[in-house]
Amino acid sequence: MIWPWRREGEGESAGTLRVPGARRDALTELVAALPDPVLLLDRNGIVTAANRRALDILDFDPSDHHISAAIRAPQLLDAVAHVLKANEAVRVDYEMHVPVRRHFEAFVSYISGEEAAAALILLRDLTREQQIERMRADFVAHASHELRTPLASLLGFIETLQGPARNDEPARQRFLDLMLAQAERMRRLIDDLLSLSRIEMNAHLRPQGTVDLGQVARHVRDTLAGLAREVDLDIVIGMNAPMPVKGDWDELVQVVQNLLENAIKYASSGKRVDIDGGGEGRFFELIVRDHGPGIAEEHIPRLTERFYRINVQESRSRGGTGLGLAIVKHILNRHRGRLIIRSELGKGSSFTVRVPAAEPELLGEAHR
Ligand SMILES: Nc1ncnc2c1ncn2[C@@H]1O[C@H](COP(=O)(O)OP(=O)(O)O)[C@@H](O)[C@H]1O
Ligand SMILES: [Mg+2]
After folding, report:
1. How many A from CA of 208 to the centre of ligand 2?
2. Which of 7, 40, 231, 315 has minimal Cβ neighbours within 10 Å of its Cβ?
3. Are 41 and 48 in contact (CB under 8 A)?
4. Distance separating alpha carbons of residues 91 and 79, to the nearest angstrom
5. DSSP secondary structure letters along 323-337
6. pTM for the complete prediction?
7. Whose CA is nearest to atom 18 of ligand 1?
8. Alpha carbon 23 to chain centroid distance?
């Protein structure tokens, strides 16, 4: 039988259950086989068996110690006392603060007919679940706030147009232009949010197509040539050998487009953006390098967080949503690739996109 949650050499539970042979073996096996941390207690609250998961969490072998030596949470100890006295099952929440804060849910159940196994404690670590829940709530709050700002401004303009500016033709034109800009900002935000959720939904499905990264770069350069010209920025593509990767064309275009748009928005002072290729064998790399202001070190690890911007006003005024690099990261995760950001203040930044190469048998096809 395979126990996927057991590691090599695991399976033995700690403690020696003081019950007759066959029954002891069965109980010990049962405790060892459970994927959650489990402890067995005798009538007096002494730990008679604990599985490997429980030892990992407690960081010591509690066998033959009273449960209060293993877990110092009053809620849990009260529950154990109650279960041993009233022969009932109880669920309690408790927190441990050492070495790091963790939140557990404990199920304490009574087992009848066995002195050495009178109660069973099963623990569930809720810490990660709660972290995810908090992140989700933060995200919703953030997204709503970002949508509410342009909406409030639209409502303000509508009121003005219905009231004070009703017959003011020049003002009306000006307000309509501003309203259009706010509505477009909302649309960009919603498009980016939908994009993120679509990519997340497919995160477990690896793209199946074969895409040449060089072709993606040339396509995006052509798409953004007009924007680049407006800010007097040259886009220079340095590679021409094929770079076939396993990927989705539209998503990889979105990746390179985001990086190039950022260079146009935030690094046009560098006058030039270089796109180069690299890598061989197992993966290919596309490097987008600008010569703009660069990014201070403390921001770099946070750039791919949703809504993280170094300067919110600057990003907004350039039509940013703060979701571009988060989308890039998610697309690359789905491709089993990575984004590597390097930067030096005053010198510029480079964004390296690394994607696994297409299967060797497809390589020939992509070269043709
Ligand atoms: N090439 C770059 N040079 C300097 N700063 C950049 C560059 N690319 C991105 N940034 C910074 O990273 C932030 C996050 O980028 P992104 O997720 O694409 O959001 P957005 O472009 O919508 O603001 C930007 O707001 C900007 O502050
Ligand atoms: Mg961007």
Report:
1. 27
2. 7
3. yes
4. 8
5. -HHHHHHHHHHHTT-
6. 0.75
7. 324
8. 46
Question: Ligand 1 test: best mutation among 231, 254, 269, 309, most atoms within 8 Å of CB?
Answer: 309
In the β-sheet with 234-237, what is the strand arrangement from edge to edge? 234-237, 272-278, 283-290, 348-356, 338-344
End-to-end alpha carbon distance in the chain? 49
Residues facing residue 234 across a β-bridge: 272
- Distance (Å, whole) CA 211 – CA 335: 12
Give percent helix, percent strand, percent coil of the chain, each to the nearest 5.
50, 20, 30
CA distance 216 to 226: 17
Q: What residues are paired with 1 via a beta bridge?
A: none
Tell me how far CA of residue 63 lies from CA of 58, 113, 117, 247, in angstroms.
Answer: 11, 21, 13, 53
| Nearest partner of 339 among 256, 217, 266, 280, judged by Cα | 256
Q: 3-state DSSP call for residue 352? A: strand
> Across residues 108-116, what is the average pLDDT?
83
Rounded to whole angstroms, the Cα distance separating 244 from 150 reads 42
Per the CB < 8 A criterion, the answer to whether 62 and 47 are in contact is: yes
Q: Walk me through the domains of the chain, giving residue ranges and CATH numbers.
A: 21-125 (3.30.450.20), 127-205 (1.10.287.130), 206-368 (3.30.565.10)
C-alpha angle with apex 333: 137 to 102, nearest 5 degrees?
A: 45
**Angle, nearest 10°, between helix axes 324-334 and 249-266?**
150
**DSSP, res 115:** S
- The tens digit of pLDDT for each residue in 142-164 reads 999 999 999 999 999 999 999 98
Q: Let me know: does 39 contact 120? Beta carbons within 8 Å.
A: yes
Using DSSP bridges, classify how beta strands 272-278 and 234-237 pair: parallel, antiparallel or unpaired. parallel
Distance CA 40, CA 50 (A): 6
H or E stretch at 178: helix 169-201
Q: Distance between CA 225 and CA 237 in Å, rounded? A: 12
Ligand 1 pocket by C-beta < 6 Å: which residues? 258, 262-263, 266-267, 290, 292-293, 295, 303, 309-311, 315, 320-325, 349
Q: Compute how many other C-beta atoms are within 10 angstroms of the C-beta atom of residue 37.
A: 21
Confidence (pLDDT) at 17: 60
Query: CA-based Rg of the chain, rounded to a whole angstrom?
Result: 30
